[in-house]
Design goal:
- The chain contains four helices and six strands; from the N terminus they run ααββαββββα.
- The protein is α+β, with helices and mostly antiparallel strands.
- Strand 5 and strand 6 form a beta hairpin.
Length: 150
C-alpha cells in the first residue's frame, strides 16, 4: 500500500490563490462587469447545472456563451450578491467546493434566494469549470418569472 502526504503549506497557498480568484470573479459579476468577469474564465470554460431546469441548457461552454448567460442574469437583476459564503479547498489544488446563498432582486420587486454548492475547477489561474448544485425549484421559479421557461 502506498500513501501520499499532502503538503499543507503548499495547499494553504493554493487555497489562498483559488479563493482570491473566486472572490474577484464573483465581485466582478455582482458589479455587472461581465466582460471582466468572463476574463477570469478559461477560453474553453464550462458552466454546468447539475440539476437542470427543463427548457434551459444544462451546459454552457465557451466565453461567448458564458457572456450571454451571465450578461442576461446581470441585466435581469437590480441587486445580486451572496451571503453565507464558505470556500472549501480540496486536496486537489485545482478543485474547490463553494457553498453560498445567492440573493437577487428584480426591478419589479421579485426576490430570488437560493442555496448553492459549486464544484469549481481552476486551470492556469482561471476558472475552467463550474458544476453548480442549486435548489432547482427556486431556480425554475425565477426562470418562469423572467419568461425563460413555462
Amino acid at each position: 500500500m502506498t500513501t501520499t502526504e499532502t503538503n499543507y503549506a503548499d495547499l494553504a497557498a493554493v487555497r489562498t490563490r483559488n479563493e482570491e480568484l473566486w472572490t474577484r470573479s464573483s465581485g466582478l459579476l455582482f458589479a455587472r462587469r461581465v466582460d471582466e468577469f468572463i476574463e477570469t474564465w478559461c477560453e474553453d470554460g464550462i458552466y454546468e447545472a447539475a440539476l437542470p431546469v427543463p427548457g434551459l441548457d444544462a451546459v454552457i461552454a465557451g466565453r461567448d456563451a458564458l457572456r450571454a448567460v451571465f450578461g442576461g442574469l446581470t441585466a435581469a437583476v437590480t441587486e445580486l450578491g451572496v451571503t453565507d459564503l464558505v470556500f472549501h479547498q480540496t486536496a486537489d489544488p485545482d478543485v474547490a467546493i463553494i457553498e453560498e446563498k445567492m440573493i437577487g432582486k428584480l426591478a419589479d420587486g421579485y426576490t430570488y434566494e437560493n442555496r448553492l454548492a459549486i464544484r469549481v475547477t481552476f486551470r492556469d489561474g482561471k476558472i475552467a469549470h463550474m458544476r453548480e448544485y442549486y435548489g432547482q425549484f427556486a431556480h425554475a421559479d425565477l426562470l418562469r418569472h423572467l419568461g425563460f421557461v413555462e
